[in-house]
Every structure is written in structure tokens, then in C-alpha cells.
Amino acid sequence: MASKMAWFLTLLLVSCASLSSPTHLKTIVEQYKGGRVEEARRSLQGWLEASPPSPQALYWASILDPRAGASAQYLQELLSEEPAGELAERAAISLGINLYSRGLYLSAQKALNRQFADPTHKVEGRYWLGRTLLALNHPDSARASFHSAASSGGSPLLRGLALIGIGDCYLSQGEYSSALREYEIVQDSLPLPQFLPQILWKKALCLEGLGKGKEAERYYSYILNRFPTSWTAQVAGKRLGLQPEEERFSIQLGAFRKRANAQNLKLLLVEDGYQAWLEKRGDLFVVLVGSFEGREEAQSSGRELEAKYKLGYRIIPLY
Known about the structure:
CATH architecture of the domain at 1-114: Alpha Horseshoe
CATH superfamily of the domain at 1-114: Tetratricopeptide repeat domain
Distance between the termini: 28 Å
Structural class: alpha+beta
Number of strands: 4
CATH class of the domain at 1-114: Mainly Alpha
Shape: globular
Helix content: 55-70%
Strand content: 5-15%
Radius of gyration: 21 Å
């Protein structure tokens, strides 16, 4: 899945038809869409140096700068220059996601806790506010925000993610029956096949919490048979006491004392298309990403994750 800031690319192209620097924008868009990111950065630098930065230039600077902190500064400057309007709403959501992904939850809450006029922005903003509130260990407030996102229309993907978020709130509170109900709603009513292994795994966790170990084992067995290459299959195999024939490695991207913090990093990674899960190690909850046949392959992916999320990593054996 594309990064969160790329979610807004289509909206940006539609809304920027009357910009004051259309030649610069058109060049940057073509280079960015063509995967020529370095060329797009050079074109943007020329635009920034040619005149005082416009809000549109600042927004593109936030997308193209690989440094999370610098990206946030561009978005904050944009919001200072243009505190209202469609671009400001999009920037506020981007800023909230940026801060959330770096664990700056109070600042993310401030960025996202606003009234969004655009219906699409409202759904996205409420969803990410819910994730932020859950990370701050406010599951009741998070659930209300997820409910708002789920009932405000939007794409099936965002509605499904919001319903999963409601289930996660119940799960974090040990309300396994309610969490199970929410996960079943997503599984039965929404076409989200990319999230099915994770939903089945969460349902198995709920069944374990309800003392229904045999039913949970059936879910783990189904995950192993139906999704043998997924990260959930690795977790299911461990739950069932199975061992693979060869050693494999994973990337530890974070370690947290609070389960909610680890859970939200894991969800961010999953939504970005990575295989990620949690494990309890001593007093810490660790976030693991991927399953690799060798250390070299794991090291390469670890460096990419470190650059993208600005988090240190460790290579650890899965078994």
C-alpha cells in the first residue's frame, strides 16, 4: 500500500488546476508519478528558490522530503500561511499522520482535532484521530472517533479500517465479545481481502480471551492453510507449537512498555502494506516486521524501514 501522504495525491491533482505556478507543478507531478523522485525534488527546489514558497510548494516539499521532521515543518508552515481551505485540511491530516508515526501522539491529536468541511477529509481525520487516541490509552474516546469515521461515508477501505479500530478498542480493554462482534462485521460485510488474515488472527485472540482455545486453534490452522506465506501464518504456527524446517529472520522495529503504542505502530505498518505483528518479550511489547530467509535480506529491508519511519531496528531470528 502506498504511504499515507500519497493517499492525497489524486485530490491534490484535482484541486491544484488554478495554481500560480502551473508549469512547476505539472513538472513535479509528472516526475513524481513517474517514480523520478530525485528529479521532482530538484524541480521543487527551483520552485522554492524562484519565489516565496506558496502553500502548494510547501505541501509538495512535505511529500518529497524524506526526513519526517522536516516534512512536518513544511506542513506547519503551510498551515500558518493558509489555516483554512481544502489544502489546509489535507495538510492537517498529513501532519497528524506524520506525528502519529513518530510517536508524538499529543501533537498529532492537536493537528487532527479539528472540524473538517470536506467529507473525505472528515473520515480520514476522524480515523487517524481514533488511532491517536488509542495510542494515548483513551479507548472510549478513540471508539467514538472511529464510530464517527465509520458512519460518515467514505471508501469501503476507510470504513473497514474504522470498524477494525472499534474492535481494537474493545480488545485493548479485554472486552473480547464486543471486539469479536466488530471483527465479524468487517469480515462479513466489507470487501477487504487484504486484511482477512489479520482479522482472523484478531478473532482468534478474542476467542482465546474468552477461554475458547479449541475454536482459536481452528482459526490458526485455517490461517496456516489459507495464507501460508503471511506473517499471520508465522504467528499461528507459534500458537500451535509448530516449527519450520529452516531458520528465518524478522526485523524488530520498536519496543514499548505500553501495548497500545506497539499496537498502533504495528497497525501503521500493516496499513502501509508490511507484514507486522506484536510479541511480548519480558516487560516490553516488540513490533516485528516480515519473515526473511537470510540475515542479508532482512538487513536490506531493515535499512529501508529505518529510513522511512526514523526508527532503529534489530535483526532477530524468528525461531
